[in-house]
Amino acid sequence: MKTIEERQTTWMDQTMPADERAAFEAELSSAERNYLEQERAIVADLREGLRHHLAAPPLEAPDFFNHRIMQTIREEETVSQPADTPAGEASESSFWHRLGRLAWLGAGAVALAVVLTASMIPRGGEHAPIDYSAQVIQPRVPADVDGISAVAFHSEESDLTVLWLDGLEYLPDTHAIN
After folding, report:
1. How much is the pLDDT for 168?
2. Which string of DSSP letters, residue by residue, matches the chain?
3. What CA–CA distances, in Å, run from 170 to 39, 86, 142, 149?
4. Quick one: 90 exposed, middle or buried, by C-beta within 10 A (0-12, 13-18, 19+)?
5. Helix-, strand-, coil-residue percentages of the chain, each rounded to 5
6. Structural domain includes residue 65
7. Is 36 part of any domain?
8. Which of 121, 82, 19, 142 is closest to 11 using CA atoms?
9. How far apart are CA 57 and CA 176, in angstroms?
10. Number of domains in the chain
11. Residue 166 lies inside a defined structural domain of this protein
12. Run of H or E residues at 164
């Protein structure tokens, strides 16, 4: 089903088939029909004015322009093919030339990717140990909290610190801490 704009356009251009035109005109009120007929007349006047006033100016010497265009095309063709090869062979050799260039470009891209990958990814060698250390000197519980105590234990041998909190409610392992 065409939209109302499409139907109006084909009616104004007078390209609508007779049966569709009769059905479309039956749908219109007299005011809508008068409006659309005025619009059709305005569009027809505009179309005629544009055709008359915007026609391309005739060229005074068309052969000169054609000659210059053909000369430019011939110059471009002679530059693109060597003088000792016929036209058919030049296009075939340029195809293989472009294909070879494309292959070298692909090989260069693969080599660049390999070099970047090898230089950016760390290898499995020995890493310097990371010295993250923190020491709990004196655990402190706020004074307004009753029934909670904190004790800290540190073992130099295991390099381990345990902070024991007593009096807190149980929280399961799966509890999300915000």
Report:
1. 82
2. ---HHHHHHHHHTT-S-HHHHHHHHHHS-HHHHHHHHHHHHHHHHHHHHHHHHSPPPPPS-HHHHHHHHHHHHHHHHHHHS-TTS-HHHHHHHHHHHHHHHHHHHHHHHHHHHHHHHHHHSPPSS--PPP------SS----TT--S-EEEEEEETTTTEEEEEEESPPP--TTPPP-
3. 82, 90, 20, 15
4. middle
5. 55, 10, 40
6. no
7. yes
8. 19
9. 80
10. 1
11. no
12. strand 160-166
Secondary structure element (H or E) that encloses residue 130, with its range: none
Tokens of 119: 């230089």
The CA distance from 73 to 71, in Å, is 5
Q: Is residue 89 part of a domain?
A: no
Nearest to 139 by CA among 121, 120, 158, 164: 164
Q: What is the pLDDT of residues 118-170, one digit of tens each?
A: 888 877 666 666 666 666 777 777 777 788 888 888 888 887 888 888 888 88
Model pLDDT for residues 32-64, shown as the tens digit of each residue: 888 989 999 999 899 899 888 887 777 787 788
Are 16 and 10 a contacting pair, CB within 8 Å? Answer: yes
For residue 155, what are the β-bridge partners?
Answer: 160
| Alpha-carbon distance values, 105 to 31, 69, 95, 162, 163 (Å) | 69, 35, 15, 60, 61
Residue that is written with structure tokens 């179309």 in the block: 47
- Full residue range of the structural domain in which residue 25 is found: 4-53
